[in-house]
Amino acid sequence: MLAPKTIAIDGPAGSGKTTIGCLLAAHLGYLCFDTGVMYRAVTLAALKRGVPLDDSVAITRLAEQIVIDVREPSAEDGRSCDVLVDENDVTWDIRLPEVDAHVSTVSAVAGVRKALTAQQRRIGLRGNVVMVGRDIGTVVLPEADLKVYLDASLEERARRRYIEIIERNEHATFEEIYNNLRQRDEIDSTRAVAPLRIPADAVFLNTDGLSIEEVYTKLRDLL
User: In terms of residue numbers, what domain contains 139?
Assistant: First the structure.
């Protein structure tokens, strides 16, 4: 049986989709493309350049002007890929708490999604890719050979994100992370353009109580 050439993994923040997606990509020798890094890159650029996050016209213009590239990882520091904005490495900067707090607002802007979706789709259609996001199976790559939707409770997702931040020696309280994820869920599921939805033909898996290895094994069995 031939492995699917294009795999779409969707789900809310903290559901484990990026971790699992990159494990599957490594197993298959595919590109692990977390499309969320592009929205994070635009958010980071806006924060650094003082672009008002509530100005959809200015944010859209920024998304259209900056050059975002996603490449195979160049360093063995835990990154799954390199993320560059105008040739500057921002791989870890896009994970800062202030980016977490605003990325859903930026990603809800229709012009931003349009500017980034075309590039994401071009990459996906090359094949040999595991694409991770919130609208991959529904909008970016609806013809994906395999679609997966990973979910988990808000409490479980906040716990995972809290552990990630502490392990990076950064500071945030569990309550802050919990509230941030709850707000992101609301924005992602109610935005007018490409809201978070479960694709009708996706394999659904709730990851509460499951280890990374257990989730990975379940999805690997689908290949």
Answer: 6-192+203-213
